[in-house]
Amino acid sequence: MNKPLTSAQLAQQTNRTEDGKYTTKSHSEADIGLGINDAALHRIELDDGGSHEINHRLLIGTGFDRAEIFNDEGQYTVEATVSNTMRDCLPAQLHAMRDSFDEDDIDQYLNRRAHVIEDFVQQRYPGAQLDPGPEGAFSFDFATNVDGPISEPDAIETLINDTKATEFHNDMVGADGTENVHAMLAQRLHDHDMAKLPNPEETDEPHKQQFINDFVSANRQDSLAILEDEIDFDDEETDIGDIDVDADTKKKLEDMAASFYDNNAGDLAAWSKVGRPSKQSGYVHSGVDAYLAASGHGSGFRSNTDAADIESEVIARRLERSTIHEMQSLEVNVELEDGQITMEGF
Fold first, then answer.
1. What local confidence, expressed as pLDDT, does residue 41 receive?
2. Mean pLDDT of the 198-213 span
3. pLDDT band per the 50, 70, 90 thresholds, residue 285
4. Same-domain pairing of 16 and 127
5. Where is the composition biased (Polar residues) (predicted)?
6. Long-range Cβ pairs for the range 245-252 (8 Å, 24+)
């Protein structure tokens, strides 16, 4: 059978608003007198280097997962820990695909960006320190110094009033009157995800040339499909191998592909490891993906991702964004002149 709560403990637990926020309360002199005589308000005295974990029942309604009192060479400190999985803070595009990922995938995505989450929390809630915490959650410690030995209820009240622990908890659970911190952190993660990876110190020339060749080849294959009605494939004298992109257009395509590669070599190197390889070659044809994205076919990098792999989705989105911003649109008219493919307006 559980021991009934004391009057001080009951006051501690009822001192909350309906939306879960913890508030302070003014006490009458009679209340104060009762508190001082209550064993629960006895000050906790610790040896140097000692610590005391506050009764978890006293934390109900505070949003704290744990609270402790420490003594370090005579300096007493109180500390509260607040945890949150952060799974509701995925960037909007990934949040829309959330059902495609399992919780382990989401946790790994967030853990790889722990420094982004930590920076955001520390900027918004000064004094927060990332704690290793339980698996699948981000735990933040909030601490403040006190004058000396302190009772458990007073330690809790100090943590509520003198640290950002309660504000952090209220924001993360979306209590009434709080800002949409989930959306703010989601935007911070999105901005991080859209930042290009640094290029390697040395260019992988074979990989670059393969990218250029694939880009030009994809244009030729696409153009042949567009010109299907103008080419008599049944004519024995028609040799598809002789139909190629005209020299000027080909040079422009090669220069476009080379420039894109130079500006995105880091991302393209990463894509070569996570993109879906061709069944025929076993190779990730990133030049083809780039061409399809630039030509407005509604396919490209994202059509070659593993739907359950968050990181491949992130890299694909970043490369498609780079394609849109850095490449000239290839949505142009294609014509066949003297057995050569030309692109009007390119």
1. 67
2. 95
3. confident
4. yes
5. 1-15
6. 245/216, 245/219, 245/220, 245/340, 245/341, 245/342, 245/343, 246/337, 246/340, 246/341, 246/342, 249/341, 249/342, 249/343, 249/346, 250/216, 252/346
- Reported as type and span, the H/E element at residue 146 is strand 138-146
Place of tokens 């382990």: 104
Domain shared by 61 and 130, yes or no: yes
Which two three-digit tokens encode residue 54?
Answer: 């506050």
Nearest-CA neighbor of 258 among 213, 318, 196? Answer: 213
pLDDT band at 169 (very low <50, low <70, confident <90, very high): very high
Residue 33 lies in a domain: no
Instruction: Compute CA distances 95 → 87, 92, 184, 343, whole Å.
Output: 9, 5, 14, 39
Quote helix, strand, coil % in the chain, to nearest 5.
50, 15, 35
Q: What is the pLDDT of residue 31?
A: 41
Calculate the average pLDDT of the chain.
84
Its domain, for residue 279, covers: 205-344
Tokens of 288: 């083809």
Does residue 14 share a domain with residue 154? yes
Question: Do 252 and 176 fall into the same domain?
Answer: no
Statement to judge: residues 138 and 115 lie in one domain: yes
Same domain, 158 and 284: no
Domain count, the chain: 2
Q: What is the 3-state secondary structure (H, E, C) of 32-93?
A: HHHHHHCHHHCCECCCCCCEEECCHHHHCCCCCCEEEEEEECCEEEEEEEEEECCHHHCCHH
Whether residues 179 and 240 share a domain: the answer is no
**Per-residue tokens: 299:** 């396919």
Report DSSP letters for 78-138, one per residue: EEEEEEE--GGG--HHHHTTGGGS-HHHHHHHHHHTHHHHHHHHHHHSTT-EEE--STTSE
Domain assignment of residue 2, yes or no: no
Q: Is residue 30 part of a domain?
A: no
The predicted pLDDT at position 266 comes to 97
Final residue belonging to a domain, choices 152, 169, 193 = 193
Q: Any idea which residue has 């739907």 for tokens?
A: 307
One domain, residues 160 and 243: no
